[in-house]
Design goal:
By secondary structure, the protein is α+β, with helices and mostly antiparallel strands. It has helices at about 20-25, 25-30, 35-40, 45-50, 100-115; strands at about 5, 10-15, 55-60, 65-75, 85-95, 120-125. It starts with a strand and ends in a 5-residue tail after the last strand.
């Protein structure tokens, strides 16, 4: 179940990135990502191979069906669940949606996902989530 929440009169949802997002909202998503993530997402074959290592989440404004934020989790050592490490990176929020707490909301979601879903032993944060 994807978390849906209301903030500043906007109905928003945090969910995993889908292939249809890249088809329908390609430029919105790419404008929020850094060069490495753009390169990874440009090729479906690469995305499929890295599904268990690179996990992309998006914040969608449900009312206007627009991606307004994104965050990336990198899970290392995926060959064993005994010593997986999680890295939270590249939390990006569209400029017109900043300063309403979305950075912290997606950060908390990514942190929960690493610890509770992926059972990472260590979590490293490599981004600013205070947007």
């Amino acid at each position: 179940m994807n978390p849906v929440f209301l903030i500043h009169g906007k109905t928003l949802c945090i969910r995993r990135l889908k292939q249809r997002d890249l088809q329908n909202s390609y430029y919105d998503i790419m404008s929020l990502l850094d060069d490495v993530d753009r390169t990874i997402l440009r090729s479906r074959e690469i995305l499929d191979k890295l599904e268990n290592e690179y996990i992309y989440f998006v914040i969608e404004d449900i009312d206007i069906q627009m991606i307004v934020g994104t965050g990336t989790i990198i899970i290392t050592n995926t060959s064993t669940q005994l010593s997986q490490f999680g890295y939270i990176e590249n939390i990006m929020i569209r400029q017109d949606y900043q300063n309403i707490g979305l950075g912290d909301i997606i950060f908390q979601h990514l942190k929960y996902y690493c610890i509770s879903v992926k059972h990472c032993l260590k979590l490293t944060v490599n981004c600013d989530h205070n947007m």
